[in-house]
Design goal:
The chain is built from 20 helices and 9 strands. By secondary structure, the chain is mostly helical. Strand 8, helix 7 and strand 9 form a beta-alpha-beta unit. Helix 1 crosses helix 9. The chain binds glutamic acid.
Length: 500
């Protein structure tokens, strides 16, 4: 730690839709910084160039802004420790990688993917954990230089001690011990010269003078690698706290295949950001007996207490969120602010103009608008399995199409009518059907009726999260796919596309 001023950060990777877990982690870091009069930073961790997109970054920033968690420094607002986007800091990481190579704390690894795969197979067969075996550590300096001169590609790996124990002192869990023999010799720089998350994360936390890192518990196994890096550089590490993952009521990990997890889903469903943040804050710090659970952000900051964070995964109970949201609407919004919220939610002039243009050719009286458009202003639709009888497509094909679309929609870098149409067309081709036939059950699942205003525009307007939710509901009604079905359908799509 270089600084006594508290500095925390949230460091999302822009590789998908903003997850409610990111809001949870951000809230934590925000509260701690505010409580200590410190700084809260937003850093974009986009070292995975293949999966990171500018669109995802934009949506993450928009979602966190909607939550009301304002950051003091970040890619959009700047600050004295920038740039705040890792893809703009490559030269910084390169010099630190050089430093580690020079001190022998990292080494060049020339192993081919084939050799690494053979090593893994052998380790698995012997029942040993998968871990780099140190093969390239045996090369002399001359050998390394010769291979490099011959143009052999290499990665830079972290040197890990052969014995001993690393102790991660977690602020909430206390000391956690890791045998060094179980810590992998992590790749720090990829063969294209780009750093991995681990190197970039440590260098940035140090240079940005981050004093406390609150992050999800999925990162706890990375902590020993990070602590090694801090000690090799001779830096003091920040204090660490790994937050338990949010859980479904059945205690399974909150995942978007099963439940809504996107921050924007909550916005699309008409939750107020204050209610969502209040709800997340209660998961971190429950109130005492008789204390009111309705808390605004300053109150949340004031009563935030690291020592009271539960270690077991807090249950994400939507009924509780509904209740809180209802209370916010009733108790905290006067008519004018209520109206403003409704406008912000779904009837902004821009959205209404688009909706009106789509609806005008399809109505005879203005009063037809209500039934025609109700689905755009609703959360879940009241459907039954019988609602799909009019789909004129056989049951297995409907389930296959809906299920494949869930996976394929998640892969879309851009969510708009034409990318959505592209997915349906691909699924229709794989099923040997016309896109129009395959679109019918989607009409029912999304609009509640076999015909409506144009489907793909409607899906764009509703947003990916709400569409996912409606498709999932439809699948629940028609029969949740088994693992085997999912695999079969996936390979049906793949082989149909390979044959083209
Ligand atoms: N980029 C990581 C993420 O997406 C950040 C992990 C950390 O906070 O160190 O969650």
């Amino acid at each position: 730690m270089n600084s006594t001023r508290v500095r925390t950060r949230v460091a999302p990777s822009p590789t998908g839709d903003p997850h409610v877990g990111t809001a949870y982690v951000a809230l934590f870091n925000y509260c701690f910084a505010r409580q200590h009069g410190g700084d809260f930073i937003l850093r974009i961790e986009d070292t995975d160039r293949a999966r990171s997109t500018a669109e995802s970054e934009g949506v993450i920033l928009e979602a966190l802004r909607w939550c009301g968690l304002a950051w003091d420094e970040g890619p959009d607002v700047g600050g004295p420790f920038g740039p705040y986007r890792q893809s703009e800091r490559s030269s910084i990481y390169a010099s630190y990688a050089e430093q580690l190579l020079a001190s022998g704390d990292a080494f060049k690894c020339f192993c081919t993917p084939q050799r690494l795969e053979e090593m893994r197979v052998a380790q698995r067969a012997a029942g040993r954990p998968s871990r780099y075996d140190g093969h390239c550590l045996t090369y002399s300096a001359q050998e390394v230089a010769a291979r490099e001169a011959a143009g052999e590609p290499y990665v830079v790996r972290l040197r890990v001690p052969d014995e001993g124990v690393c102790v991660v002192n977690d602020m909430r869990r206390g000391p956690i011990e890791f045998e060094y023999t179980s810590v992998d010799m992590q790749v720090l720089v990829k063969s294209d010269g780009m750093p991995t998350y681990h190197l970039a994360n440590v260098v940035d936390d140090h240079l940005m003078e981050i004093t406390h890192v609150f992050r999800g518990e999925e990162w706890v196994s990375s902590a020993p690698k990070h602590l090694l890096l801090y000690s090799y550089f001779g830096w003091l590490p920040p204090q660490l706290l790994h937050l338990p993952l949010l859980r479904n009521p059945d205690k399974s990990k909150l995942s978007k295949r099963k439940n809504p997890t996107g921050i924007l889903f909550f916005r699309e469903m008409g939750y107020l950001p204050e209610a969502l943040i209040n709800f997340l804050a209660l998961l971190a710090n429950a109130v005492g007996d008789g204390e009111d659970e309705l808390l605004d952000l300053p109150q949340i900051v004031q009563r935030f207490n690291v020592a009271h964070v539960p270690i077991g995964g807090p249950v994400f109970d939507l009924a509780k969120l509904d209740w809180l949201n209802g209370r916010y609407i009733r108790e905290r919004l006067d008519p004018a602010s209520f109206l403003q919220r409704v406008q912000d939610w779904a009837v902004s002039p821009q959205r209404l103009t688009r909706i009106a243009t789509l609806a005008a050719p399809r109505i005879e009286r203005l009063s037809d608008l209500g039934p025609l458009l109700a689905f755009l202003f609703s959360g879940r639709l009241a459907l039954t399995a019988q609602s799909f009888d009019s789909a004129k497509l056989d049951g297995p094909s409907i389930r296959c199409a809906l299920s494949l679309s869930l996976t394929e929609f998640d892969k879309l870098a851009t969510w708009n009518a034409s990318t959505i149409e592209g997915v349906i067309a691909r699924i229709a081709a794989a099923l040997g059907k016309k896109p129009r036939e395959v679109a019918r059950p989607f009409y029912i699942a999304i609009t509640g009726s076999p015909t409506s205003i144009p489907l793909y525009d409607s899906m764009e307007l509703l947003g990916r999260d709400l569409v996912r939710e409606r498709l999932r509901n439809a699948l629940d009604l028609l029969g949740t796919p088994t693992k085997r079905e999912l695999q079969e359908w996936e390979s049906l799509l793949q082989s149909a596309e390979a044959a083209v």
